[in-house]
Amino acid sequence: MAALVFAALAGGAGCGSNPAAKSSSLTESGPKTTSLLISWSSDGNPLVPVCNGATQNCKNDITVLDKTTGAEVTLPITASSYTATAPNDTYAVRVNGFDGLGNSIASEYEVVPVQ
Amino acid sequence: MKRVLFLLPLIAIAPLVHVAAQTASKPTQTAPTQTAPPQTAPKTKFGATLVRRTVAAPLVTANASQYTQIDFNWAYTANAPTCGTSLTNCFSGFTLTDTTLGAVIATPSTIGPTSLSYAYIPSGGVPFGTSAFSLVANGYNGSGNPMTSTPVAVSVVVNVTTLNAPTNLTGAPQ
User: Fold this and answer.
1) Which residues pair with A83 in a beta bridge?
2) Best mutation site among A47, A83, A88 for testing chain B: the one with the most B CBs within 10 Å?
3) Which domain range does residue B90 map to?
4) What is the pLDDT along chain B (174 residues), one digit of tens a residue?
5) Which fold has domain A33-115?
6) Residue among A57, A62, A113 whose CB faces B166 most closely
7) Are A83 and B162 inside 8 Å of each other by CB?
């Protein structure tokens, strides 16, 4: 109990002004997270052309998968972020497109590391 | 007389070209012999070979195609002397153009009259999809005006076989 009180005081819990001090043991007293901003710097395929209606040798869109529920969201290939409304779920992102024969292909799902 | 001597071989070598007197002869790829019947169409064309990425030639872009270089080659029988100090009635070299991008890759200053090949290293690697190229021979007529041959074309295709996942993926609670 004494340790918990010390941790709460050291982390500034209750003030609501120090988000960096969030702790898993203090989530009920800290700022409540309501969403998860998922972002990426590149779709990972800079030389692959965007499909724009084509179905060969191109990248088409991005899928965000909520691994907890199995729900999928499809985003334009030009997207660079997505705000998920279930911040405690686990998410993964992949890129979809077409190969030289017109077959649908996709990257591996990359799990979103939460900061 | 010099002008006449120059124009005659142009007409003789390129009889099917509509404006023979305004063109230089057309480059072709490896015509091993000249013994084929005159009416036989060329059996080979301007060629291009893709070169794979090597450790010694890393790509600027990590996710580029596996190819970094395109090696072009062709055959050519000049029908005019190589240009010297006087730019009249002479053959100066070749111009290679990426017709997909509309960009000139190399001109006679790079591909001289004795060149029969050229190694092209696209910035960032060879792009996916189809890239088309043309090659023309350049020269000057008796008046010193530039003239070019009809182009010969070749395409290279790099197919997408896999896709990479997004990079620098992060999730930030809000």
Assistant:
1) A37
2) A47
3) 2-32+44-158
4) 333 333 323 322 232 222 223 345 666 643 332 222 222 333 335 788 888 766 555 444 534 577 899 999 999 999 999 999 999 999 999 999 999 999 999 999 999 999 999 999 998 888 888 899 999 999 999 999 999 999 999 999 999 999 999 999 999 999
5) Immunoglobulin-like (2.60.40)
6) A62
7) no
